[in-house]
Amino acid sequence: MTSLNMKKRVTPLLLAAILLAGTIAAPGSVLAEQSGGFTLKDGEPGYYALQTMQYLSSTIGTRVAGSEAEAKAGEFILQEFGKIGLSAQMQPFDYTDDNGQTVHSANVVATLPGKSTRVLYVGAHYDSVGVSHGADDNASGVSVMLEAAKAVLKSDIPYTIKFLAFGSEEVGLVGSNYYVSQMSSDEINNAIAMINLDSLAVGDHMHIYGNSGTDGFVRELGLNIAEQLKLNITTQTGLNPLYPAGTTIDASDHVAFKYAGIPYGYLEATNWELGDMDGYTQTEKDGEIWHTPKDTTDYIAANYPGRIEEHLSSFTRLLTQMLLEMKEPLAGPAFSDISGTAWAVDAIDSLASMDIVLGDRDNQFHPNRQVTRAEFVAMLARGLGLLDPTATVQFSDVQPGDWYYPYIASVVQWKLAKGNGNGTFNPNSPITREQMAVLAANVLEVYGQDSKSKDPGAALAKYKDQSNISGYAQDAVAIISELQIMQGMPGSTFAPQKAVTRAEAAVMLHNLLFPQ
Questions:
Q1: Half-sphere exposure of residue 326: CA atoms within 13 angstroms, side-chain side
Q2: What is the pLDDT of residues 32-55, one digit of tens each?
C-alpha cells in the first residue's frame, strides 16, 4: 500500500527494456526448511500462496522500486505464471524519481481466456519499501493472485482474466497508472471490473471493498461468497464518514482503474476501528506492520500465530470463487432514484463509477435535494483527488470532528475556496449557482486552464438577470458560461442566488472535470 502522503503520479512514461539477471529457483525447492512452522499442508488452499510469499519476502527480500531485487521478483512472477500454464510477458516502463533519475521497472501481465472476450483484471504489486521485506505488503497479495490463477486455470470461467503484477507501487502507484495509461478506450469499455489485492497477511480483520452504488457489485459478490463459504471476511462499516461503508481510500493499485471508470473490488486485511479509522492502523498489538522492519513472515508468524494461514487460505478461496462466479450486472443507473432526472443520469452514473458522488445506504442519490456547500466541496475534492486528511482550516463553524472538515480544509489549502470573509464557511447552507460558478472558475485558474472570459460582457448579456449576479461572481459566471460548464435557466436567466440540486451539481461537476 502506498502511504497517504505519497503523491500519486501519472506521468508520460517511455518504454524501456529491463535487464533482468540471475536464475530464480522454484519456491518449493528452497522453502522446505522455512515452511515447517506453518500448519498449511500441500494441496490445501493457501499453501502455494504461503510458499510464494515466503520466497518473495525471505529469499528475494526487500524489493525497492527499480532495484535489482524488484527485477528478480518480476522475473520470478513471470516464471511462475509460465509454470502454472499461462502465457505472460513483461510490460516495461520508465519513470523519473524525486531526484530526477530515470528508473526502470515493469509490470507482469498474464492472460487467461474465458467464455467472453470481456475482461476482468486482477492485480497486486510486488515491490516493497526499503525498510521492509514486504511479506504482508505485498508478497501476500501477489501470492494469493498466483494461487487463484492456478486454481481456475482449467475451469470454465465466464470472462477473460488478465492477471497483473505491478511494479513500483510504493513510489506513487506508478506501475498501475502506467498500465491504465496504455489502455485504449475500447479496452476500458470492455473491462468488467478490477480486483486489487494488497496487504492480506496480518491485519486484524479481513475485508473486501468496492465502489458505491451499483458499481459495488464486485464487493457484494465477494461478501455473498464469503458468507456461503463461512469465511470471516467482511467490509468496513463507515465509522469514518470520509469513507462510506464498503468503500476505501485511494492508496493502492485500484485507483487508476477506478478513475478510468472501471468498477473495482479490493481485498485487504487491516483494522478500521483504530487510529484515524482510515484503514492504515492494521493491528491492535503493533499498529502498522506494513512499511516497517516487522513486515516479515517470521515476525508475523511468531506474534500472530495462525493468522498467515487463515488469511492466505481465506483470501485464496474467496478470490478463486469470485473469478468463477463473476457476473456483470445488467446495465442500469447507478442509483435507484435518478431515472426521473434523465438529463443528469449520464453525469451521475459517470461520477458514481469513480466514487466522486455517493448515494445513501438504500442506494438512493436524492437528485432533487438541495446540495449544501460542504457536500459540493466534498464532491469537488473527491473529483480532483485533493482529499488530504492532515489538512487544517480555521472557520468558526467548521470543527475537526465534522465529517466535512478535511474536505473543506483540503479545498481551502489549494486556494479553491475562501469562506465568507467573516471567519465562517456556512457548510450546511445550500450552495447557490453563482457560488458554484466561483468554485469552478477557481479550479480552472489553479489548474492553469482558461479562467478569464474572452468577452465577459457578451457572455453575461444573454442573461436577463445579469444585474442580480454579485460583483464577486460576475467574472466566474462569464467564463463558466462561455465554456458551457454551466447553462442558463429557463427564460434566459442565470438565477445566481438559486440553490443547486444534487443532480445539477453532478452535471456541472462532470462538465468541469470531463469537458467535451
A1: 31
A2: 334 457 889 999 999 999 999 999
